[in-house]
Design brief:
Layout lengths: L21 E2 L30 H11 L6 E4 L1 H13 L5 E6 L4 H8 L3 E6 L8 H11 L3 E5 L11 H10 L3 E5 L3 H4 L15 E6 L12 E5 L1 H10 L7 H11 L2 H24 L3 E2 L6 E5 L5 H6 L3 E2 L1 E2 L7 E5 L3 H14 L1
Parallel strand pairs: 1-11, 3-4, 3-5, 5-6, 6-7
Antiparallel strand pairs: 2-8, 7-8, 9-10, 10-13, 12-13
Helix pairs in contact: 1-8, 2-3, 4-5
């Protein structure tokens, strides 16, 4: 059976299937919200889940003090990002973003016949919104995706820069705020989407909430956009157990904020130590650090000591992304680095 020609250019998304002691390659957080498990005895798993996730959206609205009609949930923010591309980007139309950024933007664009174009980040891993705006003027993109703070660089775009971008174009703007919990709600545009007709903000429970295994994400947008996406999404796309987990997690706001504060302190301390060890560490407003090392096989050297980090040689040799671990994990990482560097 002949597949779409564009599929031939894709490579499967792979996760390293190796033995490890400490996992610092995927920006996950510990299971600190439900360490004792969850009682699902009242969740009717014999029935289809609420296809509109009404209770979860209502709880999200209360959490962010906004209307549930401006919110939509999905099986991870990745599903929602693909849904947006599938809904709005016709074959041959352009999606514009920075490079490097989240790899799935290009994958989803390719699958659905779009053209993916990028603007390179600066040498210090910042991103020039002015360059992005100029490129948009030349390529006329249907969709611009801005990851802020950016994965994998950790760079956060200023509110002024993001506002300038939104007002500079008629293109649809998707702000991927997967790591915004670590940057502070003051930098988020989640609550402002009702005031723009070309803005969508995506968020996730996978990072700050420590629920990567639950696969739960959400978006905020104007009601017309939400209504359009609701027509396209798969029915029952978020299972009943995940919806219940999300509702319960949102009721632990104080616990989440305490974890975020602790993670930021550990991140900053780790960054300082890594610089002392001779690594180039770029500024980060996330739960990970983007680093450059003279040793291009640093990931393999650490793996021999049981520590898994992410190699970004696809961007340039010697670049790595390291998730912020707990105190013991960070201590083990530093000890291992002292031996291998």
């Amino acid at each position: 059976m002949q597949n779409k020609p564009a599929i031939d250019t894709l490579k499967p998304y792979t996760v390293r299937d190796v033995e490890y002691t400490i996992k610092l390659d995927a920006n996950e957080s510990p299971n600190y919200l439900f360490e004792n498990g969850i009682d699902f005895s009242t969740t009717p798993f014999n029935l289809y889940p609420d296809t509109n996730a009404s209770r979860l959206r209502k709880t999200l609205g209360e959490y962010f003090d906004m209307s549930e009609e401006n919110l939509m949930v999905g099986s991870g923010s990745s599903e929602l990002i693909e849904l947006i591309i599938k809904t709005y980007v016709a074959p041959g139309e352009t999606v514009l973003s920075f490079d490097p950024s989240f790899t799935m933007y290009q994958v989803y664009t390719t699958i659905h016949g779009g053209v993916y174009k990028t603007v390179p980040v600066e040498e210090d891993m910042s991103g020039s919104i002015d360059r992005l705006i100029r490129e948009a003027g030349q390529t006329n993109p249907k969709l611009i995706i801005l990851c802020t703070p950016n994965n994998p660089t950790g760079y956060q775009f200023s509110r002024e820069a993001v506002t300038k971008l939104i007002r500079s174009t008629d293109a649809l703007i998707l702000l991927d705020e997967a790591y915004m919990d670590f940057a502070g709600e003051g930098a988020s545009f989640l609550r402002e989407t009702p005031f723009y007709d070309n803005l969508i903000v995506s968020r996730t429970f996978s990072k700050a909430f420590g629920l990567a295994g639950a696969r739960l994400g959400y978006i905020s947008a104007g009601i017309p956009i939400i209504q359009t996406l609701m027509k396209v999404k798969t029915p029952y796309n978020v299972n009943a157990f995940t919806q219940e987990i999300g509702i319960r997690a949102l009721k632990k706001k104080r616990t989440v904020h305490a974890f975020i504060d602790d993670c930021i302190a550990r991140r900053d301390a780790l960054a300082s130590t890594l610089r002392d060890l001779g690594l180039t560490v770029y500024p980060s407003r996330t739960n990970f650090l983007f680093v450059r090392s003279e040793r291009e096989d640093l990931d393999e050297a650490l793996l021999e000591k049981g520590i898994l980090i992410r190699n970004f040689a696809s961007y340039a040799p010697g670049f790595f992304r390291i998730s912020v671990g707990n105190q013991a994990e960070n201590k083990a990482l530093i000890s291992a680095l002292k031996e291998v560097l």
